[in-house]
């Protein structure tokens, strides 16, 4: 944040009389964010090297890491589907009448709010519980845990669904 503020202040002082619609300040904040990221990495990396001794990528041979890497792209596709469909909706709405994009953004905020509040929070809470299930009874216990989470989520989402439909 200090790097962003510094970059914007420096750009504002250098270009104090020029009118470019704020484009230079926007670019300065972007460069400041990038610089801040490198500064943060530079502050943390020496401590990490000192604590670890060295940085080795041997963990790829660990069974859990290999399985996580194998499941990464399906999880990415599942999470990205909503983002991609929202982007496509906005692209189509931009071709329609004036105000269509604003109306779509308001509608998306309304119908995605319950998913963001309940769905994501339940997914975050249940993931550690599912990862602790032992391999011997993994399938049966996983199904029971998912059904339990589904029941709790339905209990909270049903009134939200009724309220959204009534609205």
Give a verbal description of the structure:
This protein starts with a helix and ends with a helix. 81% of the residues lie in helices and 0% in strands. It is mostly helical and 167 residues long. It has helices spanning 2-14, 23-52, 63-93, 100-131, 138-166. The protein contains 5 helices and no strands. The mean pLDDT is 82.
Describe this structure in a few short sentences.
The protein is mainly α and 167 residues long.
Secondary-structure content class: mainly alpha
Could you give the order of the helices and strands? HHHHH
| Helical percentage | over 70%
**Count of helical regions:** 5
Reported for the largest beta sheet, the result is:
none
List the helices and strands and how they pair.
Elements: H1 2-14, H2 23-52, H3 63-93, H4 100-131, H5 138-166
Helix pairs in contact: 1-2, 3-4, 4-5
Notable characteristics:
single chain, 167 residues, mainly alpha, flat
């Amino acid at each position: 944040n200090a790097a962003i503020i510094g970059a914007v202040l420096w750009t504002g002082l250098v270009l104090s009389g020029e009118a470019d619609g704020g484009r230079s300040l926007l670019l300065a904040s972007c460069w400041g964010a990038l610089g801040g990221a490198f500064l943060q990495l530079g502050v943390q990396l020496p401590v990490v090297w000192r604590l670890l001794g060295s940085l080795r990528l041997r963990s790829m041979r660990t069974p859990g890491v290999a399985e996580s890497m194998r499941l990464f792209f399906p999880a990415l596709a599942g999470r990205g589907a909503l983002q991609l469909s929202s982007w496509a909706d906005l692209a189509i709405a931009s071709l329609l009448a004036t105000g269509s994009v604003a109306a779509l953004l308001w509608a998306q905020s309304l119908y995605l709010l319950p998913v963001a509040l309940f769905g994501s929070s339940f997914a975050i809470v249940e993931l550690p519980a599912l990862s602790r299930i032992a391999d011997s009874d993994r399938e049966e216990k996983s199904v029971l845990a998912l059904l339990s989470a589904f029941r709790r989520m339905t209990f909270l989402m049903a009134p939200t669904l009724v309220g959204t439909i009534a609205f």
